[in-house]
Amino acid sequence: MFPNSSLKDSIMNRVFVRGLSYSKVFCERYQPRFMNTYSDTIKPPQEKPTSIVRPIGLSKPVLLNHKLSDTYSFSNIKQELFGDQAKERRQKQLDYDLKHSPIYEAKSFQNTKGKIFTPPISYFKQDKSLYFPDFIAKTLTGGSRSLYEALDDKISIITLSSAVTGEQCVRSYFKVDGKDYYSTDYETFKEEYPKVQIIDINMPQSWIKGFIMNMGKGGLKKSLGDESRFKNYFILPSHIMSAEIKEKLHCDNQCSGYIYIVDNMGKLRWATSGMATPEDLTLMWKVVKGLQKEVSK
Asked: Are the CB atoms for 57 and 129 separated by under 8 Å?
């Protein structure tokens, strides 16, 4: 059948290679999802910051959570437990948790010195900007409030942190010319920036840390000083901000701290992360002054 043995060998080799190629494509296409997730978990930690050059955030205003009374109907509970969208959301959260182990995040934080991303060189125009998400959470007053309710008619410097290292990062952006706008010189801050406010989002990494933080509310209030700030200090359970939202806001490393400057429409105009450098400070307060002029028109 094969008068020439070399021809036979050539044909057999082609069949073998083609079979291997088909098997590889089949495996890549139909392998279980957890295999893809596992391959992501063995990727090395982040080595350098990413650069923000385009607007970040959500394409439209989104309320992340509702009052508990909104979820009591059987149909809503059934959909949350067994609905396709809920299952997909839980799978994405599992994928995220596997990728973002404490060791991975700590090493990434160390490698980048907390600079998960570097800020844009200027603030984004309002018509190009995307939205920061809305949510309902408890504040230091003891009551619940919507973030968008707190925006009022001002420019908001929103701090977001989940750990002590993150808190140290965000507070470094308020130390300007020997003054500390965040605490001791907050009155000076209000005089110099009457159309700007500070909003804090404390997002504990676990319910245990959230419980401990709630026990220490007195210390938090003392560090803020001005009672008017209590209603703008949110304690947001980490699970309310999904993995997808965190990735869109680039705040998916809980060791670092983040600053978002948001206008009165909820649009995210500028952002930064990590400890403030001299250049960061100059840029951020230039952005704040520019946006204050915009909102004052």
From this structure: yes
Q: Is residue 83 part of a domain?
A: no
Q: The tokens of 206 are what?
A: 């676990």
Judgement on whether residues 27 and 148 belong to the same structural domain of the protein:
no
What residues make up the domain containing 9? 5-31
Q: Are residues 58 and 26 in the same domain?
A: no
d(CA 182, CA 284): 14
Q: What's the rounded Cα separation, in Å, for the pair 224 and 100?
A: 31
Range ranked top by mean pLDDT from 14-18, 70-74, 154-158: 154-158
Q: Write out the two tokens for 76.
A: 């809503």
Pair 218, 175 in one domain: yes
Which residues does 257 contact at the CB level (< 8 Å), separation at least 6? 114, 159, 160, 161, 165, 166, 167, 168, 169, 170, 273, 274
CA distance 202 to 123: 24
Tokens 């018509």 map to which residue? 127
Cβ neighbours around 290 below 10 Å, total: 14
Length of the chain: 297
| Reported pTM | 0.76
**Phi and psi at residue 196, to the nearest 5°:** -125, 145
The two structure tokens encoding residue 203:
């997002």
- Give 85-114 pLDDT, tens digit per residue: 555 555 555 555 556 567 778 888 888 888
- Same domain? For 134 and 268 the reply is yes
